[in-house]
Amino acid sequence: MARVILRDDDLSFRSSVEDLEPFFKAATCYDEVVLSFVPFPEHDSELGPNKSTYNTLLDNTELCEAVKKLISLNNVRIGMHGVRHSGYGEFSQSVPVPEISRGKKYLEEVFGVPVDTFTPPNNILSKENYFRLHQAGFKRIISAFSNWPHERPLTKDYILHFLKSAALALIKKKQNRVLGGVVFNGIYEIPSFVAYRESDLSLLIDSIIQSGGCSDCDVVIATHYWELWQTCPEALLKIPSRLREECL
Ligand SMILES: [Zn+2]
After folding, report:
1. Closest Cα partner for 224 from 248, 246, 202, 192?
2. What domains lie within the chain, and their CATH numbers?
3. 152 Cβ neighbours under 8 A, 6+ residues apart
4. How sure is the predictor about 86, in pLDDT bands with cuts at 50, 70 and 90?
5. Which residues surround ligand 1, an ion (CB under 5 A)?
6. For residue 21, which phi and psi values (nearest 5 degrees)?
7. Residue 84 C-alpha to ligand 1 middle, in angstroms?
8. What is d(CA 48, CA 224) in angstroms, rounded to the nearest whole number?
């Protein structure tokens, strides 16, 4: 296993400083922590509870200061999670490049660091938007990958990935994802394993190992700060050490 990366989604101006507390510990357990923010206010979405009285990230100075402290830990990166996270499949629709670029630049200005990683809301991403992310300058997409060839560039690596994913789905082992990222046009796409519910936790380690988690591939664990980090943070913090023990 190369590295264990944590991806946490849905952070936005609605989040509070307390929501970020678990990530100070997470940064000591995971090789990398990607805090993925929604740059602009949403209209209807599936985001977590609104603990903020602010309307923009820039207004929420306490939150921004706490994020900057996390960034200073060196292995914490900022990702972008949609533009407004409006609706279930925001990135299944056409999202104009200037809108994507505006969100990216906004996060970069707010936090003072490059934002090169994109995590699609609900892990839904059309091929058109894949190319728009490239035009906007993103270098890494952390997704659940797609099982549909029309949603990604038709390159040898992607086709191989689709075939392997389809075979796993046919034998009802979809939870054993294909590990290993795919690089195309300077974008590195890497799949993630979700830890949203307690039931996910019980299967997680086995699924990763059966997926080939002892190989040299990065392993990404996807969470929401408003779910398991509130109820069983210790279990989430132990995932990297459990994986390292199993893979020795
Ligand atoms: Zn989300």
Report:
1. 192
2. 4-246 (3.20.20.370)
3. 127, 130, 146, 158, 162, 182, 189
4. confident
5. 9-10, 121
6. -50, -45
7. 10
8. 8
